[in-house]
Write a structure and sequence with these properties.
The structure is a single chain. The chain is of the alpha+beta class. It has one domain: 4-Layer Sandwich (Deoxyribonuclease I, Chain A), CATH 3.60.10. About 25% of the residues lie in helices and about 25% in strands. It contains six helices and 13 strands. The protein has a seven-stranded mixed beta sheet. The mean pLDDT is about 90.
């Protein structure tokens, strides 16, 4: 074999070996990076903000409706005052209404015209029909006499319970009325409700103090008993809405002094409200012959942006009663 052929053979053999080596040789593995150590973050010492509580907002009305048997000529219930009273209630649209002096006829008229309200009512003499039990949700009383009534919108509030007392030494209908012979029976009805939206419960008082008294201290006893009841029934931070015809004229310094313990416990919506008709705006009109302030809405653990005496002549008569209705927009 000559030198040239030998070189070609040697080159071919070398190339063959190199090719085999390239096929068989595997690539070197690439090392994966070391994972970074997990460091637990320091806990945030600041707790997350609590959700804003849902507020209860409602409109409550105080209204001595004047019993339908007190038929002052030209101001009769059925012929003159009924339709304007219903129109007034529909247009002002209170969520809760406190009535005094309501006769069974008037309760039934309002129930028929305003079916969206539940009525809790109690007769001031407390005399039941034979065989019937005391009830706040069913009228089981014999007479057609005056009732204290709390009306509330059924879809807004849940009824929890209710109670009542009379202004007498033992708190009963037949009890001694502080040895004051000029008085007639007067009743306080209180109702425990729960707002279905906010879940907050609160108490509504509907009361009527004595109209005529021989003794100065008789209405002071009404103030005392009202205060004692609220302090007993309501928790310290619970909202109380107190409405009534208190027969104490706010324009009179002596009457304001009698009211002071009550006003110290629950503030007057007329004084608290930014938008207010004013604490000295007439509530007892006596069909145009009186300018007294006898009706009140008092609030504990609540605010009242608005307080209004409904004294406009726009519902069909100037006087839906011998008392003007009044309402407060309440927040708590």
């Amino acid at each position: 074999m000559n030198t040239r052929k030998w070189q070609i053979c040697l080159l071919s053999a070398f190339l063959a070996v190199a090719a085999v080596s390239c096929v068989d040789k595997k690539p070197e593995p690439v090392p994966e990076p070391e994972p970074e150590p997990v460091v637990n973050p320091e806990p945030d010492p600041t707790p997350p903000p609590a959700p804003e509580p849902v507020k209860t907002t409602l409109r409550i009305m105080q209204f001595n409706i004047l019993q339908s048997t007190s038929e002052t000529a030209g101001h009769e219930w059925t012929a003159v005052r009924k339709a304007p009273s219903i129109k007034m209630l529909q247009e002002t649209a209170p969520d809760i209404i406190c009535l005094e002096e309501a006769r069974r006829l008037q309760c039934d008229d309002l129930k028929s015209a305003l079916p969206e309200y539940t009525q809790i009512r109690f007769a001031k003499d407390g005399v039941l029909k034979d065989g019937l039990q005391e009830s706040f949700t069913t009228d089981n009383f014999k007479n057609g006499g005056q009732r204290n009534v709390v009306m509330f919108k059924t879809d807004r509030f849940e009824y929890l319970d209710a109670g009542r007392f009379w202004f007498s030494v033992d708190g009963t209908a037949s009890g001694n009325r502080f040895d004051d012979d000029a008085t007639t029976q007067k009743l306080t009805l209180f109702v425990h409700l729960k707002d279905k939206v906010s879940g907050k419960d609160f108490r509504v008082y509907c009361t009527h103090f004595f109209a005529k008294c021989n003794k100065e201290e008789t209405r002071a006893n009404c103030v005392r008993m009202s205060l004692e009841s609220m302090q007993k029934e309501a928790k310290e931070n619970e909202t109380v809405l107190f409405c009534g015809d208190l027969n104490l004229d706010y324009k009179n310094a002596e009457a304001r002094n009698t009211l002071k313990p009550l006003l110290d416990y629950a503030g007057s919506a007329a004084l608290l409200a930014k938008e207010s008709s004013g604490a000295e705006t007439t509530t007892y009109n006596k069909f145009g012959t009186s300018t007294k302030v006898l009706d009140y809405i008092l609030l504990r653990n609540a605010s009242a942006p608005v307080y209004k005496v409904v004294d406009e002549d726009k519902y069909g008569t100037r006087y839906v009663s011998d008392h003007y209705p009044l309402y407060a927009d309440v927040e708590f």
